[in-house]
Amino acid sequence: MIIRHPPRVADWLLLHFGPAYHRESLSGDLLEEYHQGRTTAWYWKQTFAAVGIGVAERVRTTIPRVAASTLLRFLTEATALMGAIALAQQVRHVCPAGWFPAMASAVTFVAGIGLCLSIGFYLSMTMRPHRDRPMGLRRSVPIKRLSQALLVTALSAGTLTWAGAAPLDLHQCSGSNAIPASNASASSSNAVAPMSRPTAIRVWTEQAKMATPGQRVFPAAGKSPAASTDRGLDGSALGY
Amino acid sequence: MDIAPGLAPDLRKLDNFIIMEVMRKREYLSQLELMVLLSVMRPSRDAYGVLISRDIAEKSGREVALASVYAALERLERKGLLSSALGEPTSERGGKARTYFKATAAGVQEARDAHSTLQRLSAGLPALRGGTT
């Protein structure tokens, strides 16, 4: 008796792309029918049907999960990166002299990457199927989604609050990070109290309203044009 | 029609709500699912993929892909209308075991309901008795 063997490629396709539900039994059923006289064309037809069903099933179950996971990871990492950049900008803006600003950029950059990696790692842990997860991270799906959304929101809100409340003026620096005398000479005679960004914007707006046509208005109250480094209404003095 | 005549109005509203929820969650069987379920219910043999597929092809005159039969079996099992059990591996199947299927009590009830619904719907239709319209 000669035993017929079905096409190996068809078997491989069935094994790798066929439906997951009782795959072995389906393969055995096809083989049983083939041994009872079905043609090779019939075998191929059945294999293609199985692969079509398997691929459709995989697409239906995988794509929404992967898309949601990718979007969430992208949002979180982008937010963390924006936070790191904002932090670096603020440090550079507040204390432009000394060794700290040079170090701060590198430290913030590394810290930002570390933060992104840790958040990405945490999210990938929570995205795994239930059975693979360690006990500490096991939780129901709504709570998981809620905690991830809260994480992203809190990070964004924290970043924006930090950037908004950071001091505007260069006179914040003190101690080893103080402005060098040559840079600070212009402003020494016009001592201006440091103010937060929202306060500076409000003061600047009020001054602009009271100014006569053609008169230049500078962001810090009481500053002369020379002392305020010739930055006018273009908003660059506000850090924009 | 009052579905719950003895209940207070508030409870009657609740009862209506529950009935609507049950109706919303219930899924109707497709034609292939019904054919597969009826084939599995035949008492003469243990039902498995090849036999179900042959049965459907013989009774309906249309050949169905084995993978489609398995997809219908999966949906029926997920709905709790079927149960499956793995048999012994045989050499004629390349050492692969058969999976045998059996209708559950819910499956039998579902088939009975579908059958009686079809009978009621088709009753009195002249087109089904060889008439014109």
Notes on the structure:
Chain A is mostly helical. Chain A has seven helices and no strands. Chain A is rod-shaped. Residues 131-138, 174-191 and 221-240 of chain A have low confidence and may be disordered. Chain B is α+β, with helices and mostly antiparallel strands and 133 residues long. Chain B contains five helices and two strands; from the N terminus they run ααααββα. Chain B has helices at residues 9-25, 31-40, 49-60, 66-78, 105-122; strands at residues 82-90, 96-103. In chain B, strands 1-2 form a two-stranded antiparallel ribbon. The mean pLDDT of chain B is 83. Classes of the chains: A mainly alpha (240), B alpha+beta (133). Chains A and B meet through helix 2 and helix 3 of A and helix 3, helix 4, strand 1 and strand 2 of B.
Show the helix and strand layout.
The complex is a heterodimer of chains A (240) and B (133).
Chain A: H1 8-17, H2 23-35, H3 40-94, H4 100-127, H5 141-165, H6 181-188, H7 197-210
Chain B: H1 9-25, H2 31-40, H3 49-60, H4 66-78, E1 82-90, E2 96-103, H5 105-122
Antiparallel strand pairs in B: 1-2
